Every structure is written in structure tokens, then in C-alpha cells.
Amino acid sequence: MTDATDELSRLAQIMAALRDPQTGCPWDIEQDFASLAPYAIEEAHEVADAIARGAWDELPGELGDLLLQVVFQAQVASEAGMFDLGDVARAIADKLVARHPHIFAGESRDKTAEQQVRDWEAIKAQERAARAERGTLDGVALGLPALTRAVKLQNRAARVGFDWPSTDEVLDKLAEETAELRAAADPVHRAEEFGDLLFVMANLARHMGIDPEEALRSANAKFTRRFQSVEAALAARGRRPEQSDLAEMDALWNAAKAAERAG
């Protein structure tokens, strides 16, 4: 195992050199908070992808790419006199200590997981109040994936009683939104109704204890596997998908689906 302190210091020094106005890399010098933000999101998804695939040999590199985004943003901030990497580390260390009084402040560790979640949420509510975030939905990050943000917004509303009591009401709402989507007559209205339908689907996932992002990632992976099976079957017949038709590809799809379930 390497020394984390030494390697983090080395990484910070490399980043500072890349940002040097006289001798640094032109691309790195041009970056700012806004231009870097999409890369942080992309790298986080690549970390999740490596974990989902069990690619443990790739994970250190993917985590390193994500860490680079933190160091990069901190360097940009340091140059602007706002904060530096030490401030970033201090902020999360202080937050972890404050949010775990049962570990660092002598409180009892004899708590259920549910009680710990309630305590955690109470502490976060105090933090939001200190930041003058008074509204129930204040502080839910705009940059989250839309399905994830929908669930977080719904969870916040549910804490103050704005929630359906069971999945039955959500399913009724789903049918209502589906009918409204069918009736939408113009592109703008259809897009709005489609968004409402997705929002209800996220709510249904929440009520059923399903992570909608994970469920969709799984569906994407399943679609990819099965379509690749269709392509392979067509290739064995000397053809490509564009040389086939829907009936043939649908039959090959069903065969791939049956093979998966049998295996």
C-alpha cells in the first residue's frame, strides 16, 4: 500500500504545474468550474460502471479519475483565493464527525439502522437551516441525474406528509398520466406529460424500494446483451441488422431472451 498523504500531495503538485499560466498545459489552464462539472459527473458514472461490472482491477484508475476532478476544482478555487484542497478535506472530515455523534461525541452506538437514518436526517436538517435553506426541497442538487433527483425531491416531500400512503395510489396516478400522455396533441404538451409520467415512475420505484437509476442501468445492460445476441445470430447467417427486418430480429430477440432465462 502506498502512502496516501505523499501521493495526494504529489497529485496536488502535478495539478498546480498543469495550471501554471506560463509553463502549464493550455487545455488545463483554460478550464473553470463550469467546464469541469460534466467531467466530474462522467467520472462518477465510470466508477459506478466499474463496480457494476466487478472490474476491480479498473476501479483504482476510475477512482483516481474521479479524485482528479476534486483536485482540479480545488486548484481552480485556490487560484481564485476561494479555498484549497485542504479546505475540501477539512469540510468533509468535519461533516463526518458532526454527523456521527455516536462515534465521536460519546453518544450511545446502541441504535437501529432506522434510528440512525432519522438522526442523520435531523442533523442534515440543522445543517440546511444553518445555510438558510428553509424550504423542504432546498438543497437537492440540480446536477443529480434526473431520476435520482426526482426520488430525493419525493423523499423530502414525504417527510412532511406529502406522499401517497401506498403503491395503489401511485399506480392509479400512473394510469392517469399515461392517459394524459396519449391525449397530448402537440410536441410541447407531449414532452410535459412524458416528464410527468417519468416522475410518477420514479415515485413508484421509491414506494417499491427500487433504485430507478439502478433498475434502468440493468435494463440497458439487458437490452445490450440481447441485441448483441441478435447481431451475432444474424452474422452467423451472413447478414447485418440493416439487412434483416423487424420480424426476423424480433424472433432472434425472443430466442436470446429464452436462452437467458434457461441459462
Automatic annotation (TrEMBL):
GO molecular function, one term: ATP diphosphatase activity
InterPro entries recorded: MazG-like_dom, NTP-PPase_MazG-like_C, NTP-PPase_MazG-like_N, NTP_PyrPHydrolase_MazG, PRib-ATP_PPHydrolase-like
SUPFAM superfamilies: all-alpha NTP pyrophosphatases
Top EC category: hydrolase
Transmembrane segments annotated in the record for this chain: none
Listed PANTHER family: NUCLEOSIDE TRIPHOSPHATE PYROPHOSPHOHYDROLASE
Family: Belongs to the nucleoside triphosphate pyrophosphohydrolase family.
Protein name: Nucleoside triphosphate pyrophosphohydrolase
Organism: Paracoccus contaminans
Top-level taxonomy: Bacteria, Pseudomonadati, Pseudomonadota, Alphaproteobacteria, Rhodobacterales
